[in-house]
Amino acid sequence: MGNKNLVLVAGATGGVGQLVVSKLLERNMSVLALTRNRDKANQMFDSRVEIAVGDLRYPNTLTEVTKGATQIICCTGTTAFPSTRWDFVNIFNAQNTPQEVDAKGVKNLVEAADKNLDRFVFISSCGVLRKNNFPFNILNAFGVLDAKLEGETVIKASGLPYTIIRPARLIDGPYTSYDLNSLLKAKTDGKKAVVIGTGDTLNGETSRIDVANACVACLDYDTTINKTFEIINSGERPTKINWEQLFSQI
User: Is 148 helix (H, G, I), strand (E, B) or coil?
Assistant: First the structure.
């Protein structure tokens, strides 16, 4: 490792993570894809990124892989409600719950990060401050917003320069693509304008593509350091998104 500018993407093969990787590659940035499944990542990214095998749930798998990373973009997550992704025989012994991934896992990644890290970008969720109000209380039935907020709290207390991005309900694929060339060419942008807010007051939907764009764009602007903001889509999309203007609102 040891690249001058190396972005570690945790959850790189997920629906947002693979888009983040593609956006970084479009900018010719060096990428370290953190994944539980090397074969899946190799197939997806066609040997265009460096791959590290690790699991946020197990701190001993993170110690070495985070060395040399100058930025970390954390796109990890699991389903809000029990599903096969929870890796459970029954709900009482689930190993891949929001608490394990978005709270404990994020804490493990923060603790493993280089103390001179330039930025830690974390994808959280709208509703973390409204988790007792409808409809977020339903979304939080199994603690996904509790876990996201715990992750946010750990990041803010870490002393690392951070940016926390809270999208609303995620839309717009790809959900999983195994052809990087198709991924890079297809749906390079969302279809609606981007709206940014603070204080967890926004409601709506957010394109995964625009979440990925925001994760990468925020690295260029010091105005996003140690900031938390929500992002949704609304209205007609301009020809080009002015991220500098959007970020100035926070």
Answer: helix
| Dihedral, 115, 17, 86, 67 alpha carbons, nearest 10 | -30
Q: CA geometry: angle at 110 spanning 213 and 65, to 5°?
A: 85
Q: How are the residues of the chain apportioned to helix, strand and coil, as percentages rounded to the nearest 5?
A: 35, 20, 45
Q: What is the CATH number of the domain that holds 76?
A: 3.40.50.720
List phi, psi (to 5°) of 167. -80, 160
Helix/strand number for the chain, H first, E second: 9, 10
Asked whether residue 1 is domain-assigned, the answer is no
CB neighbours of residue 161 within 10 Å: 16
pLDDT for position 172: 81
Is residue 236 in some structural domain? Answer: yes
The predicted-structure confidence for 116-165, as pLDDT tens digits, reads as follows 999 999 999 999 999 999 999 999 999 999 999 999 999 999 999 999 99
Residue 123 structural domain: 6-247
- Distance between CA atoms of 66 and 75, rounded to whole angstroms? 15
From CA 83, how far away is CA 174, in angstroms rounded?
20
- CA–CA distance from 47 to each of 39, 174, 180 (Å)? 11, 20, 10
Q: Report cis status (omega within 30 of 0) of the bond before 238.
A: no
The H-assigned helical ranges of the chain are 17-26, 38-45, 98, 106-112, 136-139, 144-157, 180-185, 208-217, 243-247
Whether 218 contacts 247, CB under 8 Å? yes
Tally the domains of the chain.
1
* Rounded mean pLDDT, 191-201: 95
Residue 248 predicted with pLDDT over 70: yes
DSSP secondary structure letter of residue 4: S
